[in-house]
Amino acid sequence: MNLLMPGSIPWLMRHELRLAARVNKKPWRLLIMLGIALVVMHAVAYPISRGALLLQNKLTGKFDFSPILPLLGAAFWFVLGMTVMNAIGRTLNALFLRNDLDLLFSSPLSPHRVLAIRAFAIVAVAIVPLAIVVLPFANMLAILVAAHWLSLYLLVLTIAVVATVIAMPLCVALVRILGVRRAQTLGQVVGILFGLTMAFGSQLGFGPRGAIQSAGKQWFMVGGGPPAFLRWSGELVLAPPLPLLAVLLGASIVLLLFSRWFGGAFAAIAATSSARAARAGRATRRGAIRFATHNLVGLFARKEWRLILRNPALLLGVVSGPLLQMIAPALYAFRNQIGDGEKIPALWVFLVFVIAQVAGGVAWLAQSGEDAPDLIRLAPVDQSTITRAKAIGVLAPLLAILGAASVWLSFVEIDYGVAIFVCGSAAAISCALINVWYIEPGDRKKFAARRKGHWGIALAEFALASLWSWAAWKAIDQHYWVTGVAVLLALGLLALLRKK
Amino acid sequence: MDRPETSTEAAHALLLQDVAKSFDGTNAVRGIDLAIRPGEFYGLLGANGAGKTTTLRMTVGLLKPDRGAIQIFGIDALQDPAAAKQKLAWLPDEPLLYEQLTPLEYLEFVAGLWRIDAKEAADRASTLLDRLDLWSQRDTRCAALSRGMKQKVSLAGALVHDPRLLILDEPLTGLDPAIQRQVKDLLLARTDAGCTIILATHILDVAERLVNRVGIMRDGALVAQGTLAELRIQTGRKDATLEDIFLALAISQSAAVA
C-alpha cells in the first residue's frame, strides 16, 4: 500500500512539512544549519552536564536533584512559554495567513482532516527549536547518568503538543475578536514581552544593589525557599515516562477533538478574517465632507504616521528592533548600575539610542518604503521639497516625545534633561539624514529585511546612534571632554557619509 | 466647469517632438512626434513592448527622455516640470494607492499634493465618490477594496485636482463590465467638459467607441495616426475595423510571420 497516496494523512502531512520547510528559500541550507546547531549544542551540553554533576557530587556526595528542582521548574516554564509563542505564530500562519486554504477546502478532503493534519504539522515545526535546546542535554545525561534521562524526548513532544493545544483555540479566539493582522501583532508583542521578562528575570539573582533585585529575591525566596510551583514543575521535568505519556495522550485527544469540533466553522472564519482587518464601509447617502488644510510637512506627517500606526506589525517592527538591540547593554546596566544609580537610571541613555534607531526606521519607511512613488513624483512640487517635508513630518512627533521625556527628566536634574534632549535630537536627525541621503526603494512590508545588501548603511545608523548615546552618557557623568570626542566622531561620520 | 487658464491658450494639449528613450542600448521609443489638440480623446494603441507606456511615462515626467521636447499646454515639461504636472494626471493599470488609507484620506492627500483649496477639494471628492459609487466605501481602507474599486479610487485621485490633460495606461484592465461602463461614462463626461484624454489600451472595442483619433505604435515608433476613416484610407482597406487596422499596422512583420 502506498503510504503517500494522494489525499491520505501522510500525503497531507508531507505537503504541510514541505510548505513549512520552504519558508526558507534554500531548505538544504536550513537542514545544514539545524545539523550544525545540534552538533554545537551537544558540544555545549557535555561540559555543562558534566560540570553540574561533578558539583552535585562534591556538595552532597550523591546525585540529588532537589536543590535544582526550582531551576528546572523555571526552565520548564520558560521553554513552554517560548514554545507557545512559537506555536501561536505558526498557527496564525498555517490557519489564517497562508493562501492555500481555499484550494484545500474546495477539494473533497474533509475540513476536519485538513485541520487535524495542520495542527500536528504545527506540533512538528514547534518541536524543532525545543529539540535543539533540550535533547542534547537528554543525550548527555543519558550517557553520564542513566538512560531514563531519555524520557526528556517524551517531555519535548508533550510540551510541543500542549503548546499547540493552548495556541490553536487562543489564535481562533484572537482572530475572531481582533482580526488576523492585529492577532499576529499581539502575538509578536506578547512574545517580545515574554522574552524581555525572562531575560530580566534571569538576572534576579545577580547584582547586589537596586530595589528590583531585592524585591525579586524576596519574592523568589518567600517562605524561606523558592515558590512551590517551581519545585513542582521541576519534578514534572524529572517525571517518569508513564505520567508524561498520559499527558501527551490527553493533549493529542484534545487537539483531535478541537479539529473535529471546529473543522466546519473554521473555513468560514478563515474566509472572512482578512476582510475583518479593515473597517467595513457604511452604506450612507452622500453628505458633506471636510478636508483639513495643511502645508506639505503637515500633509506628509499625517500620511506617514497614519500608514505606520495603522499597520501594527510595521509599528512593532520599527520599535522592536532597537529594543532587542538594547537587551544586552540594558542587562549590563541593570547589573552594574552605569552612572549615578541614585539619581539617573542608565536606561535614560538608551532612550537616545532607541529614538535614533526608530527615527532611522520611520525615515526609511517615508523615503525608501514609499508605497506610491509614482504618485509622489507626479506631484507638481520639487522632489527635494517633498523629501524634506517627509523627513520633517516623520521626525517631528518623535522629537516631541523626546522633548516631553526630557522636560520630565529636567525636574530631576536639568542638566540630564538637556543632555538627553540635545543628544537624542541630534541622534534622531543623524539617522534620518542617512535615510534621506541613501534612498534605496524597497517594500515596506519587508521592513525587517530592509538592510539586506545595505549593511554599510545599517552599520552607519548603529554607529551614529551609539556615538550620540555615548555622548549623552558622558555628558550626564560630566565627563565633558569625552562627550566632545563622541560628538566630533558623530559629526565626522556624518560628514563622511554626506551625499549631495 | 471653472479651471485655471494659461495666459495664452496653447494650440496643443500635448506636443512631443523627436522624443526618444533607450534602455541598455535597446531603443524603446525612437524619436516620436505627436500633437494632441485640447479637448481631444486620443487612443494610443500598440502591441506589448511597442513603447506606449514608455512614451506616456516620459510625458508625465516619470522618465527622462534621452532627447526631444515635451510641451504640455505650451509649457516645456522638461524645463518646468512642476508647472506641467499641475495640469496633468496619470492613471496607470496598477492603482497608485496607499493600502492603509481610506478613499477619503487618499483624495485629501492627493488634493494636498496638488495644492487644491481644501473646501474645493472636498466638494470635488464628494462628487467623484458619489459618481463612482464609492461613497459607501469612503471610510474603508483601500486594502479591503476589490481591484475594481481600487482602480476607481485611483481614478478619483487623478480627477480630484481637475486636470486639463488626463493620461491613462490600460485603466480598464481587470475591471468588470459594470465598472468599465462607469469609468467610460466618466471619461466621456470629462472630454465633454473640455478635458484632453490620452488612453493607452489593448481593448480595441473600447478605443473604437471612445476616442476621436488613434495613434498606432510599433517597435518604439508611431507608425500611423488619425481617425478611423483616415486609417482606413492609409491602409487601403475601406471596410476594415480598428482590429483589422491594428493587426495590419501594430504587429511587426517578424511577429506576424511567427
What does this structure look like?
The complex is a heterodimer of chains A (500) and B (258). Chain A is mainly alpha-helical. Chain A folds into 2 domains: 267 residues, no CATH class; 202 residues, no CATH class. In chain A, 76% of the residues lie in helices and 0% in strands. Chain A contains 19 helices and no strands. The radius of gyration of chain A is 27 Å and the shape is globular. The relative contact order of chain A is 0.07. Chain B has 258 residues and is of the alpha/beta class. Chain B contains 10 helices and 10 strands. Chain B has a 6-stranded mixed beta sheet, with helices on both faces. A 4-stranded antiparallel beta sheet of chain B has the order 2-1-4-5. Chain B is globular and about 55 Å long. Chain B starts with 13 loop residues before the first strand and ends with a helix. At the A-B interface, α11 and α15 of A face α2, β6, α3 and α4 of B.
